[in-house]
Write a structure and sequence with these properties.
96 residues
Length: 96
């Protein structure tokens, strides 16, 4: 998988398995670092229990520019969008 493939992905949040080939790493190493040493990765990650997600836009921005501060801002924005979308879907399911 290339950075262009990742950039053009429809997913807002990537799995470690999505980026492992690009980073020439294995999925378990990325997950371990995300949970235990996220600063070693250099890009923002979201860890929720056993789940690890990588904000796609922030990851691509970091890979292209190496700018963690801006990547974090993209990450926060993507997380907020994801939360709003999830809340909307939950409300639709409950009929509210």
């Amino acid at each position: 998988m290339t950075l262009e493939d990742i950039e053009n992905s429809p997913k807002e949040f990537l799995r470690a398995s999505d980026i492992a080939p690009f980073l020439k790493s294995d999925t378990s190493t990325i997950i371990y670092c995300a949970k235990n040493k996220p600063d070693l990765l250099g890009f923002p990650v979201i860890v929720l229990g056993r789940t690890v997600r990588i904000p796609r836009r922030a990851f691509v921005h970091f890979c292209k520019h190496g700018d963690m501060a801006t990547a974090i801002n993209y990450s926060l924005l993507a997380a907020a969008i994801g939360y709003i979308e999830q809340t909307r879907k939950e409300r639709e399911k409950s009929g509210s």
